[in-house]
Structures are given as structure tokens and as C-alpha cells.
Specification:
The complex is a heterodimer of chains A (540) and B (218).
Chain A (H helix, E strand, L loop, with lengths): L2 H12 L4 H11 L3 H8 L13 E6 L2 H17 L6 E6 L10 E4 L3 E4 L6 H6 L28 H6 L4 H11 L11 H10 L6 E6 L8 H8 L1 H15 L3 E6 L4 H16 L15 E6 L9 H8 L23 E5 H13 L1 H7 L7 E8 L5 E6 L4 H7 L9 E5 L8 E2 L9 H6 L8 E6 L4 H15 L5 H19 L6 H14 L3 H5 L2 H9 L4 H7 L4
Parallel strand pairs in A: 1-2, 5-6, 5-8, 6-7, 9-13
Antiparallel strand pairs in A: 1-3, 3-4, 9-10, 11-12, 11-13
Helix pairs in contact in A: 7-8, 7-10, 7-14, 9-11, 10-13, 13-14, 17-18, 17-21, 18-19
Chain B lengths: L2 E6 L2 E6 L4 H7 L44 E2 L4 H16 L6 H5 L4 H8 L18 E2 L5 E4 L8 H9 L5 E4 L6 E4 L15 H5 L5 E3 L2 H6 L1
Parallel strand pairs in B: 1-3
Antiparallel strand pairs in B: 1-2, 4-5, 5-8, 6-7
Helix pairs in contact in B: 2-4
Classes of the chains: A alpha/beta (540), B alpha+beta (218).
Chain lengths: 540, 218
């Protein structure tokens, strides 16, 4: 059993990783105590002491703060003296459609309740309110009308040469949908060509950037598409090991994936002859012990090797030297699901789905000041306005002020850019990025400075602490922004921009590289915004 | 293993494949500053002051990045010097008023770097008051000043990889990350055998020898 899995199991059954428990683990496994302390202190799921009987976690990030700062404060104050409950603020829970989102006892997720409802909810946490998710199985990209047809695509394609799979992906134009936009066919081709072992396929199901929750829908409603995509990846790169790396907050997804894996094994889709006679492939479901940084693919690999999830230096890249040093294919949930769709329907069908020259369908997580925050599936190249319209438009009392199209790392654009087609290149040209397709909509009357500082604060909170620019620079940059807002007296636009340059160029991974971008970019894009003026001028 | 030829600051050099940029620069007499790197230890590339320009989107750490054929490395551009100064300032901002190492052995590497990159005013907020990191005087031999620690990981590697005493770790995460002993107990209560290797490799005043006067005075 993995060390981290054993620690998670002790944490779940006893509520803590006490010194005594860790000493027992150290003795049993013959490992030093310092190693266990390094892990216990790094992953947010682990606790030194058990705490109260119940725990309520309140999301403090982007969309949830926008909708619920006052409500959250009221609840926390009302429960302050309640010895049954620990209340804590946490990073994005991936439930931005429920904003303001809470978690009860690490298992139940929904919209922040009134303090008066708490007694009922502690008895029946399933009663936590959740908005309806209009998209349900079969999803628009699911080629299978019924469950009995699952895995018919891989059955057909496993009989063909692997090169044809790569050609089909190449023809489809599919790019990595976790935000990096790397051409999928090239990644598969590189990993296939890499020599040595062990060889693994990993599904990165750790989406954790504020505003991002589209993979949750896919994992809950179409786990078979992801399993089938991983199987095709395994066939192409000749891997016998598969791992789904799932963020721990996705409890419903966990249950659905487990069921789907059992079904796939029962059908022989996974197992000793999964890729053909004598060619085994099976998938392990690994639950992340928490932290946004684990979505960085090399941090994820560190966690899978039982270490602190601190990103590695690249090169080498995982395609040549990934998990345990072997070639490793790591793809995002939506990418792997799209592989199945493309192989089932054909590359041309996929291309035909997009607007004009854009190819395919894309799931967007839409949050913030729209009437019904939700995941929508739209043709590639649809304008931002269409995603907002698909969510019932703006909230009644607000017009569009700004939007971040792809997660906290993609800068806010003004309302005048709302006709931009949602695609990697168009949003880059507009001065932002498609990222994970997490559209965070901010309406008029909102405090934009607070919104962008909250984005940067998220990165600061989630910094692993490994390298100086990110660890120290994100802390000081956010402190400077808060000081400017709260105390005034200093124009921080120039020093903050200088600090951002150092973070962008010298941080080891993408987190540090973008940590201060939300603030620095907003100061340029919204020079006249009243809330941002506080950061720009000497206002002592 | 074959040889690789590359250019560093306009000078050609040929080194064995797998050599780091930092080591290759040394053969030319180009001294790229470092804080976290020590040739006796496996490089970790976390302080970033050895970041160099190889024409990529970001600046890799010279102590980690291996040379490649025809690589063109710059170690001394205005941009690199600016980042080096900012990184030094970021670390200096939270340092204690007096460096215990500078006071005693006089070889605090952070202060030496600050002189080299000509730090004058530090424009970044001092976080030591908002989030003080504390001291640990529990060991009769070694004084621990977490406030002076720059998380270079040298002591961790020296303790665990060189001496195999297996006591020191990084604990926590983000800005609150610091070094810890065993399950984060005071050093004097840990399994530390006082070998002194961590003091020898520490570049700042974080790990220094207890002075006899301090010990006597309790």
C-alpha cells in the first residue's frame, strides 16, 4: 500500500495523524520520522489532532467570496461557541456552482447554510442545498446512447495499429484541456517513442483552480469515457499501469469512478488482457490528500511516489521520465474523455462541432455573477456572451464588468471583450487565456481590486514553498496589495510589476509564474477602475 | 559518455554530457552565485539566484540544468542581475536584525550576496512581525534561528544524505514552511546527534554553534 494511502486511511479512521500513530508507521515501515512529518505538514487533509466532532469548511476563493463573504462571516460567528463544530476557511472546493460553497465533515458539499439549519444538517448532511446541474448523462460528447454500448470504441480501435490512433487525434486538432493546450497527438507520440519503464497512464483529475469544476461533471456523469480514453492511451504507449489522481473533495465522482472501474473489470475491459491477449492494463483510483499544487503534473508524480508534492525541475518531462522514472502519459479528464469521443465519432465529426474553423466541443465551468452558475457544453469558438447566456444571463441587478475566461491564472478582460471566441489563441490575443475553460463572471458594482487580490491570495495560499520567488514573492506581493488597499499611501504598481517579472521568470512551476499576474494585469487592463486606484496612486 | 560543446557568456566550452551549467561555468572561471547549492550536495535549485538565460520562456537554475549541445547561456544580463537582486532582497527582508553567522564566523552567504548585488533599500515588506518564525535554543550545541532560515534545504540534505542521521525535514507549506526535527520537536529533544554537519553547510545564521557564553548563561 502506498504510504500516503496508508496515512489517509489512518486519518479517515481516527480523525488525525498523531505522533503516536506516525511513530507506529515509522517502526512498521522502517522509515525515519522526519519523512512522516514532512508529509503530515504538507497535505491539508492531514491533522495532528482530531478536533471537534464535526467540521464545516467554507470556501474563501473567487466566486464563493463574491457571493458569500458576509454570509460566511455570519455563519462562522454564529458557530464560534459551538464546541461540536470546527469552522475553517479553505481554498476552492470545486463547487463553484454552489457558491458560497461549504463542506460538512469532508464528505458533503453544497451551498453555505443558515446557522439555524445547522442542527438539521449535522443529522442529515445530505440535505445540504445544491443547485441542479442541467447537464446529465448521456453528456453531449458521450457517443453511447446506452450503457451496454460502453467500450465498443476501444474494442474496435485496439485491433488497429497505434499509429492510427495518433493520426486520428492529430486530425481532430485536440489539445490538452487542463489548460496547457499541448497537442494531444504529439504528447502521445512522444510518450510512445520514449524508451524504458515502468510505463504509466495518469488521468489528472485534480482540477483545483478557483472557478474550475467541469471535470467533476465528466467524472460523475461519464467515467467510462475517461477509462476508455486511458485504455487507448495505455495501448498507444504500451503501459500496464493506470492511475486516476482525484481531488479528495470529489466524493460523488469517487463513488461513480469506483463503480465504473468495477464494471470495466467485470467486462474484461480492464485486467490481464485489457490491451489484447496477455497485455494487461488496470487503473488505480488515488485520492489526493489535498492542495492545488498537486494538479501540477510533476508535483502529482511526487505525491504518487509518497513525497511532499513539490514540483520537479523540467526537463526531464514526464513523457520521458515521469512516474518512477519511466515514460508517463498524463492527461486531463476532459482530454481523455474527448479521445473516446473522437475515436468513436471520427475526427471529422469532432472538427464539425466547432464554430467555423474551431474544432470540437468544450465544457466550460461558469461561475460568478450569472443567474445559474453551471457547467455548459458549447462549440469551440463560441463567444463568451454565449456562455453567459447559457447560464441564464447576468444576475438581475448587474451588468457585465469583467470576466476571467480560464481560471485564476487567466487575467480579467473588460466587458468590451465579451464577443471574443472562446479558444486558446483568440483569448491569448485578447490578453488573457482559455486556461481550463473556467469562466468567472464579475458584474458591475463589484470591487474588482478585492476580486483580483483574492485570486493572487489563492496562489499565495497554495504555494508549496519550495522556491524563493513563489514562497516569499507571492506573500510579499499580496501583503503589499492589502496594505495599499487598507492603509494607502503608496503606489505599488511599479514594484509589484517588477516583483511579478521575477516570479514569472524564475519560479520553478506555473503557480509562482502566475501568482501575482491577476493584480499586475488588472492594473494595466482597468486603469480607471475606482477600486484599483487605491493600488496605483499615492493616496496618503 | 560523450562531450557537449556550448557557449557561456560568449565563451565556448566543452564538458562531459550531463554536466550542469553551473559546473560548466566554473571550468571557465565564471562564478554564478548560489545560496542553496553546495557541490557536495545534490542540487535542488530552489533559491533561484543562479537562474540563467538559455533562451527559454523561464530562467532555469544553473545548478540543476544539464548542458545541451550548442546551448547559449547568459549569466550576466541586466535582467538576470535584476532578478538576482530582487531574490536577495526578498530573503533579506525577513532576516533578523543581526546575523549570528556574520557576527561569529563572518561568512553569512546571504549578506555576502547582498553586498555583491549591491542591495541598498529593500522595497518589500518585512514579514517577520506578521508571521514570526521563532528560535529554538533547546540543543546545547546548535542554535536554531528559524527567522534567518532561507529554506535552502542544505541542512536537510546534509543530515539525511551525507550523514544519514535522518533528522531534518521541511515542514509545513508555502510561506510558513520551515525546517523541523523528527516529528517537529525541539532540536534538543530530537534524535539529533549534534554532528554539526548542518551548521557547517548552513549559509545563513539559521544554524550556528551555541556560544559557550550563551550556554552558560542558559
Amino acid at each position: 500500500m502506498r504510504l500516503l494511502s496508508e496515512l489517509e486511511s489512518i486519518q479517515a479512521s481516527t480523525g488525525a495523524l498523531t505522533d503516536e500513530a506516525l511513530k507506529a508507521v515509522a517502526e512498521r515501515r522502517g522509515i525515519p520520522l522526519y519523512q512522516l512529518q514532512g508529509l503530515r505538514s504538507f497535505y491539508p487533509v492531514f491533522r495532528e489532532t482530531a478536533g471537534a466532532a464535526h467540521r464545516i469548511q467554507i470556501c474563501r476563493d473567487g466566486p464563493c467570496r463574491l457571493h458569500g463573504q458576509a454570509k460566511a462571516k455570519a455563519l462562522a460567528e454564529a458557530l464560534d461557541d459551538d464546541s461540536r463544530i470546527d469552522v475553517e476557511y479553505v481554498s476552492c472546493l470545486g463547487q463553484c456552482d454552489c457558491a458560497p460553497a461549504v463542506a460538512i465533515d469532508d464528505k458533503h458539499y453544497g451551498t453555505l447554510p443558515q446557522a439555524s439549519d445547522i442542527d438539521v444538517l449535522l443529522d442529515r448532511p445530505n440535505a445540504l442545498e445544491r443547485p441542479a446541474q442541467p447537464l446529465a448523462a448521456p453528456l453531449p460528447t458521450d457517443p453511447y446512447p446506452t450503457q451496454t454500448q460502453h467500450y465498443t470504441t476501444s474494442r474496435e480501435w485496439l485491433a488497429r495499429p497505434a499509429e492510427q490512433v495518433i493520426e486520428a487525434l492529430e486530425a481532430s486538432g485536440l489539445q490538452g484541456l487542463g489548460g496547457a493546450a499541448f497537442p494531444t497527438a504529439r504528447k502521445w507520440s512522444f510518450t510512445r517513442a520514449a524508451e524504458g519503464g515502468p510505463r504509466s497512464v495518469i488521468c489528472n483529475a485534480d482540477e483545483s483552480e478557483p472557478g474550475t469544476f467541469k471535470d467533476r461533471l465528466l467524472l460523475e456523469q461519464a467515467p467510462h469515457l475517461i477509462i476508455e480514453g486511458m485504455l487507448m492511451g495505455a495501448a498507444v504507449i504500451n503501459a500496464d499501469t493506470g492511475i486516476i489522481y482525484l481531488r479528495h473533495e470529489y466524493e460523488t465522482a469517487r463513488q461513480h469512478i469506483e463503480t465504473a472501474l468495477e464494471q470495466a473489470r467485470a467486462q474484461g475491459v480492464l485486467g490481464d488482457n485489457a490491451r489484447g491477449p496477455g497485455l494487461a492494463f488496470d487503473i488505480e483510483l488515488f485520492i489526493s490528500p489535498g492542495g492545488y499544487i498537486l494538479g501540477e503534473e510533476t508535483a502529482l508524480l511526487e505525491a504518487l511516489e509518497d513525497r511532499r508534492g513539490e514540483p520537479r525541475h523540467k526537463p526531464p518531462f514526464p513523457v520521458t521520465a515521469g512516474l518512477h522514472g519511466g515514460p508517463t502519459l498524463i492527461n486531463n479528464v476532459e482530454t481523455l474523455a474527448a479521445v473516446t469521443t473522437i475515436l468513436a465519432r471520427g475526427a471529422q465529426w469532432w472538427r464539425d462541432q466547432g464554430v467555423g474553423d474551431y474544432a470540437g466541443l468544450k465544457y466550460f465551468s461558469v461561475s460568478g455573477d450569472v443567474e445559474h452558475p453551471q457547467v455548459v457544453c458549447l462549440p469551440w469558438g463560441s463567444p463568451v456572451t454565449q456562455a453567459i447566456a447559457a447560464c441564464g444571463g447576468m444576475r438581475a441587478d448587474r451588468d457585465l464588468l469583467a470576466f476571467s475566461p480560464g481560471g485564476a491564472s487567466t487575467p480579467f478582460l473588460p466587458a468590451s471583450a465579451a464577443d471574443t471566441p472562446m479558444a486558446f489563441e483568440t483569448l491569448r490575443e485578447a490578453g488573457s487565456g482559455l486556461g481550463t475553460g473556467a469562466l468567472f463572471v464579475v458584474g458591475t458594482g463589484r470591487n474588482l481590486a478585492d476580486v483580483v487580490i483574492t485570486q493572487a491570495r489563492f496562489f499565495r495560499n497554495e504555494s508549496c514553498g519550495k522556491c524563493v520567488p513563489c514562497r516569499s514573492g507571492s506573500t510579499k506581493g499580496v501583503a503589499m496589495a492589502y496594505d495599499a488597499v487598507n492603509k494607502g499611501g503608496r503606489d505599488i504598481s511599479q514594484p509589484l510589476s517588477e516583483l511579478h517579472d521575477t516570479l514569472m521568470r524564475t519560479s520553478i512551476c506555473g503557480l509562482g509564474q502566475v501568482a501575482l499576474l491577476p493584480i499586475v494585469d488588472a492594473l494595466k487592463t482597468f486603469p480607471d477602475d475606482p477600486s484599483l486606484k487605491a493600488l496605483q496612486k499615492d493616496n496618503a | 559518455m560523450s562531450d557537449v560543446t556550448l557557449t557561456i557568456d560568449g565563451r565556448r566550452v566543452t564538458v562531459p554530457e550531463g554536466t550542469t551549467i553551473w559546473d560548466a561555468a566554473q571550468t571557465l572561471g565564471i562564478d554564478i552565485p548560489v545560496l542553496c547549492h553546495d557541490p557536495r550536495l545534490d542540487p535542488v535549485g530552489v533559491c533561484r539566484v543562479c537562474a540563467v538565460d538559455v533562451g527559454e520562456r523561464t530562467l532555469p537554475a544553473a545548478c540543476v540544468r544539464a548542458v545541451s549541445p550548442d546551448m547559449e547561456v547568459r549569466t550576466d544580463t541586466q535582467e538576470i542581475l535584476a532578478h538576482r537582486r530582487v531574490l536577495t532582497e526578498l530573503l533579506l527582508a525577513d532576516q533578523p536584525a543581526v546575523s549570528q553567522r556574520e557576527q561569529t564566523t563572518g561568512d553569512d552567504k546571504l549578506y555576502a550576496l547582498a553586498r555583491e548585488v549591491k542591495v541598498t533599500d529593500i522595497p518589500w515588506p518585512d514579514q517577520s512581525e506578521r508571521q514570526p518564525r521563532g528560535q529554538d535554543a533547546s540543543s546545547p550545541v546548535i542554535a536554531v534561528d528559524h527567522q534567518a532560515c532561507i529554506m535552502c534545504d542544505r541542512c536537510v540534505r546534509a543530515c539525511d544524505d551525507i550523514q544519514h542521521n535522518d533528522v531534518i525535514t521541511r515542514t509545513g507549506k508555502g510561506y510558513s514552511a520551515r525546517i523541523a526535527f523528527d516529528l517537529d520537536v525541539p532540536m534538543g529533544e530530537s534524535s539529533c546527534v549534534s554532528c554539526g554537519e548542518c551548521v557547517a553547510v548552513c549559509p545563513t545564521g539559521a544554524l550556528t554553534h551555541q556560544s559557550l557564553a550563551t550556554t552558560d548563561a542558559g
